[in-house]
Please model this.
Amino acid sequence: MRRELLHLPFFLQLFGIAAASMLVPSVYGIVVGDHEGSRSFFYSGLLGLILFIMLAAVMNGRRYQPSALGPLLSLFSAFVFLPVYFAVPFVEALPTTRFINVYFEMVSALTTTGATMFQDPERLSNTLHLWRAQVGWMGGLLMWVAASAILAPLHLGGFEVTAQAEPGQREMSETNRMTPMAARLRVLRVTRALFPIYAGLTLLLWLLLMGGGDNPLVALCHAMSVMATSGISPVGGVENANIGVTGEAVMMLFMLFALSRLTFSKDTITATQGGLPTDPEFRIGIFVVLAVPLFLFVRHFLGAIDVAAMENLSDAAYALWGSAFTVLSFLTTTGFVSEHWIDAQDWSGLNTPGLVLMGLALTGGGVATTAGGVKLLRVFALYVNGTREMERLVHPNSVSGAGAARRRLQSNGAFIAWIFFMLFALSLAAIMLLLTLTGSSFEQALVLSVASLSTTGPLTQYAADAPIKLIELTPVAKAILSCAMVLGRLETLAIIALLTPDLWRA
Model:
């Protein structure tokens, strides 16, 4: 039976998993007495499983032409079409909203963006809150698996700047000739390796948050959101959960997994074998997490002098902690804000500009993690190239000595990274232009574009002068943002690869 399921298209397998996953909120609805919500998910899941079995019976045994981009197309289809199915029980359980709003919500969750149409948590039942967090968690797992099994062999998702991506570059000559069965076996092998890690870390974080006194449902949703970097919360954010500094410290520890793939897996180690301490992504991430809060602290410190608030050192400590937690959260594109983030502003009497948060989200986390943004490895490639060019200004005839970290990059890695930056900037400008045509202001269009392309939905609540009410946007604007979130999750180079006829003929 397992062998027969492997013959099915990757997208159909994902659909079957999606249908089965609806049993979780259905059972939860029965436990908490939400029978209407439970029925919605049970019937939707049952119909989905019946449809999956019928399609599996029809398509079983069919032969498919080998294609290098088949799994990538299935991944793209999953982010576009699975939210339609995910939205069905949501609309049934919440008939007071339109389908476009729920589709946007499901795209936002599956791409781990976390932007929500329902800013009032009381409008949704606990069953729907669990479903939002669960979809985001599944989207994070999908990206963990797809990074090694799909993107790395195709030199996408940040692997295009590496000199030796494992798995990937060494097998690139065989990748274009890889049969669909071999590709599915790769996905299965990677899933077996990563799913226990992903689920185990989520369970551990859940238990730690509950041990700190958090509500079981809130703790579970926050645990899934941290691991998926989705920023989905059933109470409107961590600042409303009252978990204290201890709970935030635990969450901050688990956010480090989004800075580098090497924090949880060695399936993408390159020629650099120094491990996590020498990993450039992790080191740059830690530097940013230390440098930006110190910069904000000094800025707040100078402001506190003017308002004569320096005598309260405890407020200064809370301000520093709130900055550190929030910086790491937005750098990993999670988007949670510390409950002391407001204290950091009140202590100094200054409002921290939203450009700092948008800059962190655009930088993003590590390659092959659940984080979005342009990725730290690409930033490192440009940094290495910049330092080398400055060396050549002083010593034009010098020969660069490639260190262990620099050997991780291709000779033209910086050029490829620069191309991606330009494509990202063009995408950002295009989405901003389209949003302004739908009636959004420049500031609103900028925040929405950055939030969608960097998959950091909470920017809509904290980066602008006032929170942006997504539900008030026009249907066209919501459709544009849905497309932008898919583009930000898969990245521009992957979309271009899908439009390249030469690769389809490979």
The first helix runs from residue 2 to 6. Residues 165-177 have pLDDT under 50 and may be disordered. DSSP finds 22 helices and no strands in the chain. The radius of gyration is 23 Å.
